[in-house]
Amino acid sequence: RRNVNPVSVGSPYGAIRIKHHFRLVIRYFSLYSIMKLEGNQMKFLLTAVNAKYIHSNPAIYSLRAYSVQKDPELEKNIELAEYTINQPFQDILADIYGRKPDCIAFSCYIWNWEMIRDIVRELAKILPDVPVWLGGPEVSYNAEEILEKLPFLTGIMVGEGEETFRELLCY
């Protein structure tokens, strides 16, 4: 396996930062293509960790709405999960695990970044074959550094993510 430097892939609307082994990334996208051919649905879990129960994360709703507007078939592939920073860490992990996602993405902000870092570290242990993506303002400005510190991440979506996320779903 050949380790690669972080690269940007994507549209003028945003970019996907990837630092991983080529074979692993290719294996993931090949698995998705096989699942589509066999009629199986891949579940992409868009995850938000909010500051309070009364808050909602418009980013994950926007990502899903944009993708579904462009291709209504994608709706069955996208699931949303919202938690708060006040929920027990193990409860969040158990819920994510119980949803059995094929791929997970987190919306990262200053108020949830520390918790998300801890969550993705544990997810790499309990769901090692599930690709994990990050996006949001807290990870966009230093994507390469984060990918170096968290090598089990599949990638980081940088910038406005609607078109980039849809491209990732359809890749």
Q: What do these coordinates show?
A:
With 171 residues, the protein is an alpha/beta fold. It has helices spanning 22-37, 58-70, 89-99, 113-126, 137-140, 143-149, 162-170, and strands spanning 7-9, 14-18, 44-50, 78-84, 103-107, 132-135, 155-159. A 7-stranded mixed beta sheet has the order 1-2-7-6-5-3-4, sandwiched between helices. Helix 2 links the parallel strand 3 (44-50) and strand 4. Helix 2 (58-70) packs across helix 7 and helix 3 crosses helix 4. The chain is globular, with a radius of gyration of 15 Å. The relative contact order is 0.21. Mean pLDDT is 79; it is low at 1-38.
Describe the secondary-structure layout.
Layout: E1 7-9, E2 14-18, H1 22-37, E3 44-50, H2 58-70, E4 78-84, H3 89-99, E5 103-107, H4 113-126, E6 132-135, H5 137-140, H6 143-149, E7 155-159, H7 162-170
Helix pairs in contact: 2-7, 3-4
End-to-end Cα distance: 22 Å
Q: Which descriptor suits the 3D outline?
A: globular
What low-confidence regions span 5 or more consecutive residues with pLDDT below 50? 1-38
Query: Order of strands side by side in the largest beta sheet?
Result: 1-2-7-6-5-3-4
Q: What average pLDDT do the residues reach?
A: 79
Strand content: 15-25%
Q: Helices and strands: which structural class? A: alpha/beta
Q: Which H/E pattern describes the elements?
A: EEHEHEHEHEHHEH
Describe the sheet with the most strands: 7 strands, mixed
